[in-house]
Amino acid sequence: xxVETHNEFSTEKFAAQTVQVAGSERxxxxxxxxxxxxxxxPIPRPLGTVARKFLYPILSKNWGKGSYVQxxxxxxxxNNIIAGDNIRILRxxxxxxxxxxSLLKLGKDVSLDRNVSIRLGENCTVEIGEGTYIGPFxxxxxxxxxxxxxxxxIASMAGIYAKQHxxxxxxxxxxxxxxxxxxxxxxxxxxxxxxxxxxxxxxGAVVTKTIPPYSVAVGVPARVxxxxxxxxxx
Length: 234
What we know:
234 residues, alpha/beta, nine-stranded mixed sheet, seven-stranded parallel sheet, 15% helix
């Protein structure tokens, strides 16, 4: 059976966006933009959330409309971020994109709960699809490329780490989580893994190998227990 996925982040689209961010839409004085973002960050709600909602799209043409960003959300490397409309980022989260040739893309309606940490690296891209929720204290870390699909649910304290260390050095193969996946509390997704469309990963699981679509996987290391469906979503 062939299972179709629905990934909005095509290579061609992403390349075009990278060129756009690297070109005409960069401000003449990025230092000023960083300063203005840092001044707006700590303003408490309700004034602060209203100010950020209207000022962030003005300060950055790559920041969508209607965002809800609470106080003390740290944004590093704003020039390397493309944010869709109606995103939500709660208190104490950090988006660290201040690296050469890095790009973070947040699709519309993405929601990052409190204390979410997203850290890129040089030559790194992280893409989070439309409608995806990432729970509190979750860490998403490069420098390998990471793609999280649309309408995924990632519970609290999960870890998505696109780098592996071993006795002779390290490697980065990247991670892909396809659309409509569910990642349980405290689960760890390691470098080189693809989690197939519609899969569920149990709480505390450590995923070291690719998981087929519609799977339920649990344990350390994670093993597939069952297939949740026999046909793709309509």
